[in-house]
Specification:
With 373 residues, this protein is α/β, with parallel strands linked by helices. It contains 12 helices and 17 strands. The protein is 34% helix and 20% strand. The strands form 4 sheets. The chain has an 8-stranded mixed sheet with strand order 5-6-4-1-7-11-12-10, with helices on both faces. Strands 14-13-15-16-17 form a 5-stranded mixed sheet. A two-stranded antiparallel sheet has the order 2-3.
Amino acid sequence: MTATQPHGSTREIIASARSIVVKIGSSALTSMEAGLDLARLDALADAIEARMRAGSDVVVVSSGAIGAGMAPLGLKQRPRDLATKQAAASVGQLALAHAWGTSFGRYGRTVGQVLLTADDIARRSNHRNAQRTFDRLRSLGAVAVVNENDTVATAEIRFGDNDRLAALVAHLVGADALLLLSDVDGLYDGDPRKDPDATFVREVASPEDLDGVVAGSGGSLGTGGMASKLSAARLAADAGVPVLLAAASEAASALSGGPVGTTFTARPNRLSARRFWVRHAADTAGALTLDDGAVTAVIGRRRSLLSAGIVSVSGSFDAGDVVTLHGVDGAVVARGVVAYDAAELAGMIGRSTGDLAPEARRPVVHADDLVPG
């Protein structure tokens, strides 16, 4: 089942949201010279606490671990190699968690640190475990402060960036809204630092509102940049979570429903947790190529995928893994949870259900486990 968004403008929905994820960028918490800026962190905690006292649950996704660790380690610029990034993160995560704990402690509020890796989101069992942890922290009145577990990330130091992590967490915890706070006051159709004629975009209600928007990559301290924020906002909105992109310096106004930042309207129906995981969070382990009839059946008529419509199989996957579904032209048309491993499926390609052994007559990908896309 999918949940329908409440009525009202996107800004009104965000202002009245009972459950919120607030992502705070590195540039809002740290500086190259001094590392962690405790005054700015306190101001953000003040704004978040005010929203919580108004009746909302808030989960914080906090960047800044690497930036917070640079000054204590005597690093003059953001490290490029993985080992130094992880060393800085190991120092910075401790400082960051302590700072958040101290700041919220002024209000008698307990903080729980949640460090996630991409694997925790991609693996369904870990995904459910993380959900339970967040739910329990909130039921106990604690503030969950989330960051990528940079000290053990191997293939990459980040999910992509903490903006994407925040979008994934927003759906994971069933949030009613996502706030992305950084050093920019919203979305422009160009870089306002370079183009004084760049136009501010107040609301993104559909993909057409992004026509002509040019977004850049990250700066010296962070890894995101506007391109990352735009991608994360679109991911969250597509999953049914409205988004506000605003400046961290305007956090109090953003969290109290003020007329700041850029809003992103959510799709009318929220994806179920399982369908969101299939579309956005799970790693894919292989691919199936479908004939034109199968593409029409699974996409146009939302039917389950049967073996008769499969042209070829690639990759090494097990039953229960997520695979991509392609048309004969190579275009990706969907993702889904496959019911057979690659070796089993190889002998079923193109065969009608009646020609298969009884134990092999269930759909290759059930319609409930298939997300167009």
